[in-house]
Amino acid sequence: MSLVTDAAALAQDLVEPLGRRWLHVQSVAARAEEVSTVVDEEDRPVLLAAAWLHDIGYAPTIGHSRFHPLDGGRYLRAEGWPARIVNLVVHHSGACFETAERGLSAELEVFPFEDTPVMDALVTADLTTGPSGERLTYDERIAEILERYSADDPVHRTWIKAAPILKVRGSHRGAQS
Ligand SMILES: [Fe+2]
């Protein structure tokens, strides 16, 4: 089995029972495939595997910190997945902003941040896909997050700060659409 096939199978095991989040994950994987033209060919399986796995931390069977990027990454590390996949999952979609809000920055720092087009493509795929898998623009996706979480929620506070920064990064790389 290939890396991507293994990732899709694990994601299905862990995320399909969660309902609509499985629709989101399948669409993020499809979107990652679309934007994968911006990354080197040898990096494409890494991007696609990370896209399949990015939200496994929502599975209650593996969650401990209740911060899904960290929970997902720790699980993958324990299961022996390649470090790049682990680190992409841990840091996806501005995780560092939310760990700052939640007081979890030290836990995140043990995982290196990959500052590459692969990370930007992963973030773009996630942030142009809605919670039920619908295609959204970046601005629509941020508006949807801010509406879904109340103003005193750490997620809401995170995206007030992170949205303009991640938007600039995406457009800088040319991966935004
Ligand atoms: Fe996601």
TrEMBL record:
Matching entries from InterPro entries are given as:
HD/PDEase_dom (IPR003607), HD_domain (IPR006674)
Q: Gene3D superfamilies annotated for this entry?
A: Hypothetical protein af1432
Domain HD: from-to ranges? 24-99
Listed name of the protein: Putative domain HDIG-containing protein
Lineage runs:
Bacteria, Bacillati, Actinomycetota, Actinomycetes, Pseudonocardiales
